[in-house]
Write a structure and sequence with these properties.
Blueprint lengths: L6 H8 L17 H10 L3 H9 L3 H6 L2 H12 L3 H12 L6 H14 L3 H12 L7 H11 L1
Helix pairs in contact: 1-7, 2-3, 3-5, 5-6, 5-7, 6-7, 7-8, 8-9
Length: 145
């Protein structure tokens, strides 16, 4: 039986694919982004990663949310190190959405039951009210104490 504060319970409570922003645009009809998004939506994560991998890096830097999709696809495939590396790319990009990388990175650590790394990452989020999921990070930290 899991305790109310187990890392798995916290992961499941806070992991929500609806937190991912939409990426597709009308002009993207049959390109790799659309194909990747379609595969992602039906949980074909390997296929999604294949198409996302074909996307030009310049496009990715203009659409940093793609880092989230690549990271989450890796998380879903239990490729936690690849997920963390992808979220680190977003974090280190200094883009507006960089703090979302911390949130999803914390979720990877919760899923993998790495409480120390989860706390470290959540503390970064909780250190600035403007960070994505600031309140949730503080709440999880209280439960991990």
């Amino acid at each position: 039986m899991f305790s109310a504060n187990s890392t798995e319970d916290l992961f499941l409570k806070h992991y929500n694919l609806n937190d991912l922003p939409s990426l597709a645009k009308r002009s993207d009809a049959n390109n790799d982004l659309t194909k990747g998004m379609n595969a992602f939506k039906i949980k074909e994560y390997k296929k999604a990663l294949y198409f996302f991998g074909k996307i030009n890096e310049k496009y990715i830097l203009k659409n940093p949310s793609l880092f989230l999709y690549v990271g989450v696809a890796n998380l879903e495939l239990n490729k936690n190190e690849k997920a963390i590396n992808t979220f680190d790319k977003l974090i280190n990009s200094n883009l507006l959405d960089a703090s979302k990388g911390y949130w999803f990175k914390a979720l990877v650590y919760l899923k993998s039951k790495n409480v120390v790394k989860a706390k470290e990452t959540l503390l970064i989020i909780a250190s600035n009210k403007s960070n994505y999921k600031y309140k949730e990070a503080k709440s999880i930290l209280e439960k991990l104490e």
